[in-house]
Batch of 4 targets.
Target 1
Amino acid sequence: MFQQLTPTVKNLLGINILVFILNSIGILPQEALALHYFESNQFHFYQIVTYLFIHASLMHLISNM
């Protein structure tokens, strides 16, 4: 099954899993990486990319991938 995946898809899967693990153990704060409304004080430009890799639970991660 994994032999049919392109290198880009494999990298995205790896990044998603790594960010989920780091977020679960508290190394990466979810509030900093999640996307906030652009007029909010918590909004940062990098959140436009990082919110794609944040998942709330293991089932959320699995169902999105």
Target 2
Amino acid sequence: MCVAYLFDGHNLIGALSGLSLTDVDDEARLVVLLRGFLARTRRKGRVIFDRGAVGRAPTLATPTLGVTFARPPRTADDLILDVIAKEPNPRGLILVTGDGRLQDAARRRGAAVLAPADFARQLSAPARAVPGREDDGPRLSPDEVAAWERLFQVRPDHKS
């Protein structure tokens, strides 16, 4: 997938108010925010996290957002460097990270870099209407709707 945004997941979580790396569902909560942002901006992206729950990435991923958890001994940084090196259109890539080494690698390839604090402002910005369109709301594919339904499904061990 040729991505428009490449997110350093845990680096971004640490920079967003309302999210904490100590939360059990911090990755899922970030993914929900990123899905909304990508739908609103009509862009695609990929978020990469350091190790996580086995099998979670496929359930969190959608056609517009790829989700990858690094498997030790590799780290999220290793995978991000791989994506940057292999990106066929690095000038179309926006890396969101505060990690200087990753920023340098992205800039050397011609990719844009966005600090997590700057991205946080974009994340909370209101959607811009497209002139001439009555409904500028996000369009979700059937796969994305199914992914949202799975994410918010009430588990039998939880009481309402």
Target 3
Amino acid sequence: AMFRIAQEALRNTATHSGVKQATLEYREDGNTAELTIGDHGKGFDTAVRGGGLGVISMKERAHLASGTVAITTHPGRGTSIRASFPLAPGRIA
């Protein structure tokens, strides 16, 4: 789930942000795995564009893996996507 979310977020950055660079950060704290993908591109107005199929698919993938996806975006200042998943013994996000 995390790989596919990262893939879609990076595809969205390449297609829509207007920049050629993004950051990807992975963290674990023992109970939670967290993936953050960000860029300093165009961003978008969530009131106008609540999200296309890519955003919907990221949220659905996270939900199926008991996780969440949060998107923070500001027109002209970029976008950050954070995917969080609970870690259980023997379970890989």
Target 4
Amino acid sequence: MLLGWGGDAFTLAKERDLMILTRNELIEALQAHKCIVKFTKVNGEVREMPCTLREDIVPKYERKTPMKDATGKNQNTLSVWCLDKNEWRSFRVMNVTSVERLVAF
């Protein structure tokens, strides 16, 4: 579950009075907006990553590692286009502590 606020998918979480985004709502928000996702990396370091899944910004993703389950998705991680590195990056969904819609980048 993910903390979130702001428009679109974030509003769905707010309407539930939980301020929590599901993985699918996070994907929806990232497909519509640039966001800052704050999460704890595997090594314990905290990272604030400006990222998106907007089709007009991201290049085609070429998988370098094998798929994890029968649906072709690893439900524990999410691959996103990192705006400050201009590369595909991923994070563990359960390690996300906040998501904020990015106004300008």
